[in-house]
Specification:
The chain is mainly alpha-helical. It has four helices and no strands. The radius of gyration is 21 Å and the shape is elongated.
């Protein structure tokens, strides 16, 4: 009889690939992890944005922490909320 070692992992799929996480070579497992991660995230699209608004967003971009779209939108929304006494 084969002994199954339980590494504290939840599913048979995870037990089959004990390295788990993003190091796994199991593509369906990795895809499931990615879907679960994305399901926890809020997505805000700003397609068809006004050219003036795009210019403001683009002027805030830089290649360092805080220069990504999420950080820029966070700053804009928080400043707007503070200006409008919503905070």
């Amino acid at each position: 009889m084969e002994t199954i070692v339980d590494y504290g992992l939840k599913t048979e799929e995870e037990r089959a690939y004990p390295s788990g996480g993003y190091l796994s070579k199991n593509k369906p497992y990795l895809a499931r992890l990615q879907r679960e991660r994305r399901a926890k995230k809020i997505r805000i699209d700003y397609q068809d944005v006004d050219p003036e608004a795009k210019a403001v967003i683009d002027s805030q971009r830089f290649n360092a922490v805080g220069g990504d779209a999420s950080s820029i939108l966070n700053r804009i929304v928080l400043e707007w909320a503070e200006t409008n006494d919503l905070k």
